[in-house]
Write a structure and sequence with these properties.
Number of strands: 2
Order of helices and strands: HHHHHHHHHHHHHHHHHHHHHHHEE
Helix content: 55-70%
Shape: flat
Radius of gyration: 33 Å
Strand content: under 5%
Largest sheet: 2 strands, antiparallel
Oligomer: single chain
Distance between the termini: 66 Å
Amino acid sequence: MKTLVEEIKYHINILRREISDQEVVEKYEEKILSLNNADLSYYFAKEIEGSNKQAHGQVVIKSKDPEYNYLYSMNIKDSDIKVHENVVLESKDPKYNYLFAKNIEGADVNAHEQVIIESGDPEYNYQFVAFYKYLSLDMIKLHEQNIIASGNLEYIYKFAKNIKEVNIDLLENEIVKSKNPEYCYLFAKNISKANINFHERIVIESGNPKYNYLFAKEIKNADVKTHEQVIIESGDPEYNYQFTKDFNGADVQAHEKVILESKNLEYIYKFAKNILNGVNIQNLKEAILESKDPEYNFLFACYIDKYDITDYYLTVLASGNKEYIELFRNLLPNSKNINKHPGSEYVISKFTDELSKKLTYKK
């Protein structure tokens, strides 16, 4: 449901298809101004040619809304920049003080910076320093202190990564104290002066399989075997699979055991399909068959065990899933052993609905 302001904008846009902007101004501008709505006055001044920019500007100024005072200064020609700027400064809003300083020609950058510093907001303290490359070391330090005090790991990390002349040790200490495996991994990967051992220990102690995998894969001289053990102990099928796929010398049997115990069919299938050495296909096959899942039985028959698909076909038939029965019907002519299974007799029976060919099994 549209708000009242949205409804008014919508109807004015419809009217503009039928009448000129001059007529819109004559018929509706006084009503719009009487509403004293900053959003509507900004819209009217911006979109309607011949509107009273000064009057609408006054509505925006009186609203004391930092967003629309910024937008009015940004997009309305001959707006009273200094008055709008005072509204933004008085609002103490770090976002619009940053945007005003950045985008409005002639803005009092120092005054906006002071508002941002006083706000303590980590995002706009970072954004301000990142945009204004000429800041003094003393000013950078003030912004850095705010970011550290905020405890916001995203901006502590970004400040260390992207801002020159920062105190890496202070910023790193905050990351280490947090014991957050994601930011310890990112700090170790992307900050040249990082203490790798500190971060690696935290990642290992976290037990997080994703960041142990990434640390082992992407950080030079990482303790790969220790990270591998964490991943095995986590029981996570995704990262046990990823580790086995990406590291020569991985303990394939240990990772396979984890994946089998997880009963996660996606990674049982991927393990069988993509790990070329050391896997026990029979164990993986049995897990797929026991699941009775038609999709993964079909995929196994297509890509893993395609020369002996009988057991998979029987499982799919038992599921009653018409989609995969039909897919198997198309696969049957490509199977060499469908009618040659030792000790068994297989008969393909046709059903009148033509949805599938059914395989009946006789001992």
